[in-house]
Each structure stands twice: as structure tokens, then as C-alpha cells.
Design goal:
heterodimer; A: 556 residues; mainly alpha; B: mainly alpha; 7 helices; Cyt_C_Oxase_1 (chain A); metal-binding (chain A); copper (chain A); electron transport (chain A)
Chain lengths: 556, 213
């Protein structure tokens, strides 16, 4: 078979031009960050479908009160945890890492990541980790302790199953993968910038990945330590007691360690999205970002504060009131840098000559919906309110507004935005818009009503509920099914456009000024033909034929 | 041909540095931050379990039997000495005395191996003699079982690091012997040194927490 492609998509060796097998092998063993990025994105897509299927099963079961499609309550009990694990650890984080692998080295004018082999290793840890994590499905031993795995529920007394052991080991491996990735990003950004580029001239997406990498580096190992202790407690019952109160352990200790990771993890899942939206809004508003320096400092502030708020997940555990009030205050403080970012994006759009292509639609809708998610976050940050709403559907609504209307929408904005750069072709705009509108509408249909459900007292993770909640649950379920199906429009669009889409220019959106828009679409192996040079910013809007403007940073 | 040249030019760009240190060094520092946080998690667990009201924590000096604190203090001294010898490896390499650099590297490796040997001896003694409840359910622990649990996880995780470090140092030693690492490749030795010094530094924390306090 003959392979017709260009740029980094082309076969690297003579054999690969004629043999599909050799061509695939080149991809699987590649050290090119762009190819590894694509591998991440393919993996993340499969995991998104898998996590989406699990969520649809949950919602179909909940469409009516009483047991419907699932007869085994234990199986239902495992689903929310498995859905969350798939979406958080195997979809959102790898999806952002994928885009960043492609874009970050190019944005800083580097030919590749600092450690190309480590990069490949970090990716290839993920598929075996996924197999381990979800092994319970094949062995009929699904862990039922949710994605948080609180002991004593997750210890060997209450979850004496192999599936749980595999799940824990799978998560440790994911942690290893993402820390290796973070080490790589940091070394790349700090050390491989092209001549003339200072830290405060980095594009905001690169900044976002830098801050995220610091978060991963400082937070993920703490989860690993907690999971190590959990593993030993599970493997050697009667010998190791860390969390089991029966042996003098402290279950609250696990929660502290777990949330010391998992709260920063929500920023690991949203900061790259912030970066993507910053790029999209600049290009489609045809204006430079408003308050660049403040945008960077806000991200740093969010990251630092993110480490100081973990106990707001533990208001209901009986920790001292003074501590709860302190954490409430710090949690609410995060609204300040987040607000600065929201207003900076709005100010960037203000007076801009805005083009509403699909990436911009996703970015703009993100601003509106993430604000709802952020505000409901302030609501549950208040101790007295949280005590009432704890473990209700309000929390489910909040986290989905943040992660679906936040992370997922920004990921779509980023993928649509850079698709012409990645493949050299445009996606189909009409299909993109259909996908956007269905997604934006049905996210709200699915999740908005869950605020009401939570306030009325419907608990999360329950198999059955009061029939009074039936209509609201039905609406949410219908929304989730349409939302899930709408995503196949995206996949079809991407697959079709990759082969048949309209050919894209180098600067596909015409207004891109960061380095990735100065090189060919798709980029060549090693990105640049000669060493790029970054000229200081000129904050004025000039066209590519006018020297001295934003455009002449890399002369090909 | 033109594209091949372009690709060659691009290859030469890999490894360009803007901070004045190699990628490897920066990567190792980042990795060590990560590793320090893992130890921090385990030490936080230790602290929480020990200072929980009602925990029946023994005095370490009584809990270790004849291997005691003295033997581990000697072991700590050996590990610190191996860190000093690691400094000599780099110093001699920079002076171009490759023969002496190799000898110091051997000294470092032996130091690591002695550390592991003494730790293995201590573990065997503790498991077989001092804490029989670990294997035999008939016995009851004389004190809080969390003591043994945190002891094993902290010293075990550190021991794993020492083992990895010894293997790492052996690879460097082989490189020095075969001439693959020359007197100009100081960065390779320096990065291995960073890891080895970190392992020492963490041990001082672990030793203080588990044995001394």
C-alpha cells in the first residue's frame, strides 16, 4: 500500500513508503513529540468513548426510579468510580498532554521535547495502566469504592477483590506516566526555548503547561505515596496498618493525602484548557491578549492556592471548625485569580474583530459555562452549605460544569483550533458547528437540572431514588444520551477531514502569530528548517507583509 | 537531499540550552522534586500516625533489639562517606585523573552495597526476632503495629532508591572503565551524583524520623 502524506505524517524510511506495517511501527516507536502527541490523542479518544459509555449506562439506569436495565446493584455501584477514573486519568489529562506534546515544542521554537525517549516511555505506560485499572471488568471483580478509594471501604476487608488491587496499581502507573511527562515539559520549556524568547514572552498555552507540570510534579507523588500505603495495607492484612482504624490507622490521613493530590488535579485538568482558550480567543478576536502578565500570574496564583485548599473536600469528616473556616476562606480566594482570567478573556474579545468559527464558539461557551461551574464552586466552598450539599447531586453538577463545560469544551476548542496545523487540512465547519451547538445545549440539559436535584436532596452514587425526582432525572438522562451521540459527529468530522478536508495554509486562521503558525502545515520532522529567532513583542496589529509587526519572528 | 540537510541541521539543534545547564541536569532536578514529594507523603503519614492521640508508639531504642540505633548510625555514616566519594569521582574526572575517578566510583558502589547489606541484616533480624506477629498471627504486637508499618515503608522505599542508585553507579562505572565516559562528560557523572546525594539527604530525614526522634 502506498502512503500519501506530508510533513510529520510522511513515512520516515523507504520501507515505510510501501509497507503499512513498517509505517505503523514508525508511529508506535517514534520519538517525535508531534507523533507522540497524536498517539496520546488517539488513546484519549478511545478512553473518552469508554468513559462516555459508562456514563450513559449510569444515566439510563437513573432515567426512572427503581432498578431498570441493571439488575446487579453491585455492578451499578462500581460504575461511577470507573467512569470518573476513565475520564480523569485516561481521557482529560492525556488529551491535554497530547495537544501539548504537539504544540509546546513548536511554540517555543524547539525541534522536539527535551527527552524524546522518555516522552515515548511516558505514553506507553498508559495503555497497560488502563488495562490494569479496568481489569475488574474482565474478571468480574469491580472495585466499588468510587474513584476516591477511601479506606476502610477500599481495604482488603471490604474490597477483598483482585480488581481493586489492579485498579490501585493502574493508578500508580498513571501517576508515573504523568510525572515523567511533567519532567519532560519543564526541561523543554526552561531549556529549549529559541534564542530571544524570554519566559514572559512564552505563549499562554506553553505557560499553562509549565504551571501544570509544576502542579503534577508536586502533587502526583503524594497520591502515589497514599496508594503505596493502601497497596501494602491491602496486600499484607494484619501486618500493615496505615488507614484502617482497626489497627490504629487513620482513614482521614488517606483523605488528606488523596486530596492533596486530587484538588490540585482539578487544576491539572483545567489550566491547559485555560491556555488553549487564551490562544483561541486572541486569534479569533484578532487582538493580543489583554493583561498578559496578569494572566500568567493568575495561573501561578491558582496553582499555589490549589495546594492550600484540599481540606474543603473534607468538611463533613469532623475536622476542627477553625480549620474548616480557614480552608473555606482560601478556597473562595481562588475565585480572584480565576475572575481575573475570565475578565481578561472578555477584555480581549471587547472591541475585537471576532470570527465565530468552531474553536471560538467553544471558547466563548466555555467562558459562560465555566463561570456557572466556578460560582457553584464558591457555593459548596461555604462550610454550612457544603454540610447540606455534601454527597448530593449538586456536587455532581458542579464538577461536571467544571470538567465537561470546562476541560472538555476547552479541549475541543484546542483540537479544532490546531487541527489544520496537525493535519494540513481544515475540518468541516458545518459539522463543527452542529457538534458545538449539540454539545453546548445538551451539557446544560444534562447537568443544570442536577443542581436542583442536589438541592432537593438526591444523593450521588445511589442506584434508586425517590420517584419525586423522576422527571428531572429523565431530562438529565436524555441530555446525556444526546450529548454522548453528538460526539460521534466530532470523530466523524476529524476522520473525514484528515483525508478529504480543505487544504490549510501555514497560518491557517490568518491571524495566528505564535511560532506554530509560521511553519508548514503539517509541520516537518523536527519542526523548523533552521533555528528560529524570537523578536520582542510588538503590540500592534500589522499584517504579514508589514515588517516589524507580530509576524516576523521566524523567517523561513 | 535538501530536506535531509534540513533535518540534519535540526538534529544539531536538539540539546540547545537556554538556562546554561544540560537538559539532563534540569530533568534530574525536576525528578528529584517529584521524589522528594513522594517521601514527603510517606513522612506525613508517619507523622500523623505517630502523633495521633492514643497511639502506642515505642521508643525506637527499645524497639530494634540488638541491631539498635548504633548499627544504623554506622550505616548512615557509610552512606554519607559514599556521597563524599561521589564528589571525588567528579572532582577527579574534572582534573582528568580518570584512573582515580574510577577508583572513587568503585568506593561509592561498595559503600552503597554495604548500606544495603546492613539494612538487609537489620530487616531480617527485625522480621524474624523482634516482630513475630508479622508472620505468625498467634503473636500480638508489643506496641502499635503502625510503628513497624511506617518503618518498613519508609526504609524499604529508601532501600529501593539505594538499589537503583547502585545500579546507576555501576553503569557509570562501566562507562568510565570502557572509556565511553570521558573526562569531558562531567555532566553525566554530575547527574548521577545529584541522584546519589539526594538518596543520602533523604536518608538523613528518614533516619531522624524513624530512629532518633
Amino acid at each position: 500500500m502506498e502512503i500519501k502524506a506530508k510533513g510529520y505524517l510522511s513515512p520516515l524510511s523507504e520501507e515505510a513508503k510501501t509497507s503499512l506495517w513498517v509505517y505503523l511501527k514508525e508511529w508506535m516507536c517514534t520519538t517525535d513529540a508531534k507523533r507522540i502527541g497524536v498517539l496520546y490523542l488517539i488513546f484519549a479518544t478511545f478512553m473518552a468513548i469508554w468513559g462516555g459509555i459508562l456514563s450513559v449506562i449510569i444515566r439510563l439506569e437513573l432515567a426512572q426510579a427503581g432498578p431498570d436495565i441493571i439488575t446487579d446493584a453491585a455492578f451499578y455501584n462500581a460504575l461511577p468510580g470507573m467512569h470518573a477514573t476513565a475520564m480523569i486519568f485516561f481521557f482529560i489529562i492525556p488529551a491535554f498532554t497530547g495537544v501539548a506534546n504537539f504544540i509546546v515544542p513548536i511554540q517555543i521554537g524547539a525541534p522536539d521535547m527535551a527527552f524524546p525517549k522518555l516522552n515515548l516511555a511516558a505514553f506507553w505506560i498508559l495503555p497497560p495502566a488502563a488495562i490494569l485499572t479496568f481489569a475488574g471488568f474482565f474478571m468480574n471483580s469491580l472495585p466499588e469504592f468510587g474513584w476516591t478509594a477511601y479506606p476502610p471501604l477500599s481495604n482488603s476487608v471490604y474490597s477483598p477483590i483482585w480488581g481493586a488491587d489492579f485498579w490501585v496499581v493502574g493508578l500508580i502507573l498513571v501517576g508515573v506516566s504523568s510525572t515523567l511527562g511533567a519532567v519532560n515539559f519543564l526541561a523543554t520549556v526552561f531549556n529549549m526555548r529559541c534564542k530571544g524568547m524570554k519566559m514572559f514572552q512564552l505563549p499562554l498555552f506553553t505557560w499553562a503547561m509549565t504551571v501544570t507540570s509544576f502542579l503534577i510534579l508536586a502533587a502526583t507523588p503524594v497520591l502515589t505515596s497514599a496508594l503505596l500505603m493502601l497497596t501494602f495495607e491491602r496486600m499484607f492484612p494484619g501486618v500493615f496498618y496505615f488507614f484502617n482504624p482497626a489497627g490504629g490507622g487513620d482513614p482521614i490521613l488517606y483523605q488528606h493525602l488523596f486530596w492533596f493530590y486530587s484538588h490540585p488535579a482539578v487544576y491539572i485538568m483545567i489550566l491547559p484548557g485555560f491556555g488553549m482558550v487564551s490562544e483561541v480567543i486572541q486569534v479569533f478576536s484578532r487582538k493580543h491578549i489583554f493583561g498578559y502578565v496578569l494572566m500568567v500570574w493568575s495561573m501561578i496564583a491558582i496553582a499555589v492556592l490549589g495546594f492550600l485548599v484540599w481540606a474543603h473536600h473534607m468538611f463533613a469528616t469532623g475536622i476542627a471548625l477553625e480549620i474548616r473556616v480557614g480552608f473555606m476562606f482560601l478556597t473562595m480566594l481562588i475565585a480572584v485569580p480565576t475572575g481575573i482570567k475570565i475578565f481578561s478573556w472578555l477584555a480581549t474579545m471587547w472591541g475585537g474583530s471576532i470570527k465565530f468559527d468552531t474553536p471560538m464558539l467553544f471558547a466563548a461557551a466555555f467562558l459562560a459555562m465555566f463561570t456557572i461551574g466556578g460560582l457553584s464552586g464558591v457555593v459548596v466552598a461555604a462550610v454550612p452549605v457544603d454540610i447540606q450539599l455534601h454527597d448530593t447531586y449538586y456536587v455532581v453538577a458542579h464538577i461536571h460544569y467544571v470538567l465537561v463545560a470546562g476541560s472538555l469544551m476547552t479541549a475541543f476548542a484546542g483540537v479544532y483550533f490546531w487541527f489544520p496545523k496537525m493535519t494540513g487540512r481544515f475540518y468541516n465547519e458545518l459539522l463543527g458547528k452542529v457538534h458545538f451547538w449539540l454539545t453546548a445545549i445538551f451539557i446544560n440539559v444534562t447537568f443544570f437540572i442536577q443542581h436542583w436535584l442536589g438541592m432537593k436532596g438526591m444523593p450521588r452514587r445511589y442506584y434508586d431514588y425517590d420517584p419525586a425526582f423522576e422527571l428531572a432525572n429523565l431530562i438529565s438522562s436524555v441530555g446525556s444520551v444526546v450529548l454522548f451521540l453528538a460526539q460521534f459527529i466530532f470523530i466523524a468530522n476529524m476522520l473525514w477531514s484528515w483525508r478529504k478536508g480543505k487544504v490549510a495554509e501555514d497560518n491557517a486562521w490568518k491571524d495566528g502569530f505564535t511560532l506554530e503558525w509560521q511553519i508548514t502545515s503539517p509541520p516537518d520532522h523536527h519542526n523548523f528548517h533552521h533555528e528560529p529567532y524570537w523578536k520582542p513583542l510588538v503590540r500592534q496589529h500589522v499584517g504579514p507583509d508589514q515588517p516589524g509587526g507580530l509576524w516576523h519572528r521566524y523567517d523561513d | 537531499m535538501a530536506s535531509q540537510n534540513a533535518s540534519l541541521a535540526a538534529d544539531s539543534m536538539v540539546g540547545e540550552e537556554s538556562l546554561g545547564v544540560t537538559n539532563g541536569k534540569l530533568g534530574m532536578w525536576a525528578f528529584l522534586v517529584m521524589d522528594a514529594m513522594t517521601f514527603a507523603g510517606l513522612l506525613a503519614g508517619y507523622a500523623r500516625l505517630r502523633w495521633t492521640p492514643g497511639s502506642d508508639w515505642p521508643l525506637p531504642i527499645e524497639a530494634f533489639g540488638f541491631t539498635g540505633i548504633q548499627l544504623t548510625a554506622l550505616n548512615t555514616f557509610i552512606l554519607i562517606c559514599s556521597s563524599v566519594s561521589m564528589v571525588h569521582v567528579l572532582a577527579e574526572q574534572m582534573r582528568g585523573n580518570m584512573e582515580r575517578a574510577r577508583k572513587w566510583m568503585l568506593f561509592t558502589i561498595v559503600g552503597g552495597l554495604i548500606f544495603l547489606g546492613i539494612q538487609g541484616f537489620e530487616w531480617t533480624h527485625l522480621i524474624m526476632d523482634m516482630w513475630p506477629y508479622l508472620f505468625d498471627e498467634g503473636y500480638e504486637a508489643a506496641y502499635s503495629v503502625n510503628f513497624a508499618a511506617t518503618f518498613f515503608i519508609l526504609t524499604g522505599f529508601h532501600g529501593l532508591h539505594v538499589s537503583v542508585g547502585v545500579i546507576y553507579n555501576v553503569i557509570i562505572y562501566l562507562g568510565l572503565r570502557s572509556g565511553k565516559i570521558t573526562k569531558d562528560d562531567t555532566s553525566v557523572v554530575e547527574i548521577a551524583g545529584l541522584y546519589w546525594h539526594f538518596v543520602d539527604l533523604v536518608w538523613i530525614l528518614v533516619f531522624t524520623f524513624v530512629y532518633l526522634i
